[in-house]
């Protein structure tokens, strides 16, 4: 069920891809900035649970900080400038032409080309863990964690859903540490939703609705049936469930992982 869905392709990497590959922004006709991404595709709560490190429920308490990710080199990896001239040849060929200007990308090396944005705006939010559907990462009930997301107040990105202070969510998350995001300095470790909005579920009055229309069922089996029945027709309606339903789907995912590990 984890086939690739090509929402929009772009060059570059932002925050260890935010579980996607995020490229430099481009200006839209209205003057706003648009960030492009390429996400893996998930169709069920079981699916996102299987790739998440933790799955939690709880409210967004506050905005911790905002920062514009300017990228950077991963810790421990030397920066390599493809335009840096080679060391001087001790026995130069007198018939050779002069060396090319080192500020120009040598022929045969494809450059990224100019971008219209220097960085990717990010927002970091404090979330209280009211409950856990999948445990891990040393996180426990009652903890407060930092969740990072594209700052949709500054840019638009297909597949990104804003997290609103005061609202309750069920979130399927993966952790990033400092070495994963050298372009971010205001926070060291934080969590990101898997698959963009596919890892975000809105909780309201006991009803849980996925932010992404891709999520159509609790389990992979149910999703396959729905998608098969809808073949050639309109897409199935997105899932409407409860936190209890998400817990059951997480158990199905955990059981599947145990079976796979035992083989």
- CATH architectural arrangement: Beta Barrel
Output mean pLDDT: 77
Number of separate domains = 1
Order of helices and strands: EEEEEHEEEEEEEEEHH
Q: At the first level of CATH, what is the class? A: Mainly Beta
- Strand fraction: 25-35%
Q: N-to-C terminal Cα separation, in Å?
A: 20 Å
Secondary structure category:
alpha+beta
Number of helices: 3
Rg (CA only): 22 Å
Low-confidence stretches: 1-24, 26-31, 75-89, 95-116
CATH topology: OB fold (Dihydrolipoamide Acetyltransferase, E2P)
User: Biggest β-sheet, characterized?
Assistant: 8 strands, antiparallel
Given the C-alpha coordinates, what overall shape results? globular
What's the total count of β strands?
14
Helix content: 10-25%
Describe the structure.
The structure is a single chain. A hairpin with a 2-residue loop joins strand 13 (200-204) and strand 14 (207-210). The protein is of the alpha+beta class. Helix 1 (45-51) packs across helix 3 (243-262). The protein contains three helices and 14 strands. Helix content is 14%, strand content 28%. It has one domain (4-73, 117-262): OB fold (Dihydrolipoamide Acetyltransferase, E2P) (Beta Barrel). Residues 1-24, 26-31, 75-89 and 95-116 have low confidence and may be disordered. The strands form three sheets. Strands 6, 7, 8, 9, 11, 12, 13 and 14 form an eight-stranded antiparallel β-sheet that branches. Strands 1-5-2 form a three-stranded antiparallel β-sheet, with no helix packed on it.
